[in-house]
């Protein structure tokens, strides 16, 4: 396993897609800081560092930025092992399939953490002089960071499984990116459904006068449906991403548990299928 990890890290250092992703995250962090500066100058107010820092896990609670970047890098990195015949060579020299799979998963997890660190370092270097220190408690910030890191590792588990079970790296990349996009928009849609108020104000004309009256919102969800929708958002890595970045996550502990479930199940299923896979 150690030899496999060393080989993967050596190849990662030479991976163009990885360094392009690092550069993108640095550029993304600088853009976030510049937008914050512009907003503060325009509105003559101050913004807390909390929001800028948490944008590393998504953009304003809307776009799962790290998931999209990791989908491209991880699927290409793993897929290249098939196209270059690296996996076949590793099997020939005696490495186990489980070891090969887990070494790729650990490498993909390291990619996600490296991308997050590059963003965090730039935001802290530029954002602290601009916005000051965090306003939330240390416990809250650490909980959000822990959930965010587990979310990135769960992405890595899913992308590793897709890349290891699909020999075509282009197909794997498309599958991973589309999966992030679909789950991201699904989470946003479900979130808007949950946010529907129980009562809505309507304008009615009574005796020739306009009167505002409250009436039940037909789109208001029952408690059972609300719980199901919230579970889906909390469970999906993209749902976790938009909630953490938007600072709207109501169940940090459950989200961490769901990420662990995804990590464990994805690796178990992936290793089981990969062991039976015919390597061409």
From TrEMBL:
<feature type="transmembrane region" description="Helical">
    <location>
        <begin position="100"/>
        <end position="128"/>
    </location>
</feature>
<keyword id="KW-0472">Membrane</keyword>
<keyword id="KW-0812">Transmembrane</keyword>
<feature type="transmembrane region" description="Helical">
    <location>
        <begin position="16"/>
        <end position="40"/>
    </location>
</feature>
<dbReference type="Pfam" id="PF12730">
    <property type="entry name" value="ABC2_membrane_4"/>
</dbReference>
<feature type="transmembrane region" description="Helical">
    <location>
        <begin position="255"/>
        <end position="274"/>
    </location>
</feature>
<feature type="transmembrane region" description="Helical">
    <location>
        <begin position="134"/>
        <end position="158"/>
    </location>
</feature>
<dbReference type="GO" id="GO:0005886">
    <property type="term" value="C:plasma membrane"/>
</dbReference>
<keyword id="KW-1133">Transmembrane helix</keyword>
<dbReference type="GO" id="GO:0140359">
    <property type="term" value="F:ABC-type transporter activity"/>
</dbReference>
<feature type="transmembrane region" description="Helical">
    <location>
        <begin position="52"/>
        <end position="79"/>
    </location>
</feature>
<protein>
    <submittedName>
        <fullName>ABC transporter permease subunit</fullName>
    </submittedName>
</protein>
<feature type="transmembrane region" description="Helical">
    <location>
        <begin position="170"/>
        <end position="190"/>
    </location>
</feature>
